[in-house]
Amino acid sequence: MSEFTPPSTKPPSPLPRLAGLAWVIVFVLWFYSLTMPNAQTLDGTTISRFDLWTNLSDLLMENIFPTPNAGAPPSGWRYFPQRFDLMAVAAFILAGAWGLGHLLLRIIGVRVGLDGVERNVYAFGIGLSGLSLMTLAFGVAGLLNRWLLGGLTLAFLAGEIACRLRARRSSNRHRKKYAEPKEISTAAVVVGVCVVPFLVAMLLGAMLPSIDFDVKEYHLQGPKEYFQQGRVTFLPHNVYTSFPFLTEMLSLLSMVLRDDWYRGAMIGKAVLMAFAPLTSLGLFAIARRWFGSTVGWLCVLIHLTTPWVYRISIIAYVEGGLSFYLLATLLAVLHLRAHTRMGLVAGLLAGSAVACKYPGVLSVALPLFGWTIFSTLRTNGLKHSLQVATLFAIGSVITFGPWMLKNTVETGNPLYPLLYTVFGGEDWNDALNAKWRNGHSPPKHLLANPSHIPDDLWRHAIDVAAKTDWQSALVFAFAPLAIMWTRQRKLIFGLCLYVLWLFLTWWGLTHRIDRFWVPMLPVLCLLAGVGMGWLLKVEDDTADPEDLPPLDAPYLIVGGPACLVVALSLLFNLCYITTPLAGYNNYLIDLNLDDPPSITPSMALLNELDLPDDARVLFVGEAQVFDAKFDHVYNTVFDVSIFQDWLSATPDLPDGEQSLKSAEEIRSILSEHGITHVFVNWQEVLRYREPGSYGYTAFVTPERIVELAEMDVLKGLPIDPRIAWMTWEGVNAGQQDAMAALHHRVNDQDIFIRYQLFEVQ
Question: What is the pTM of this model?
Answer without folding.
Answer: 0.94
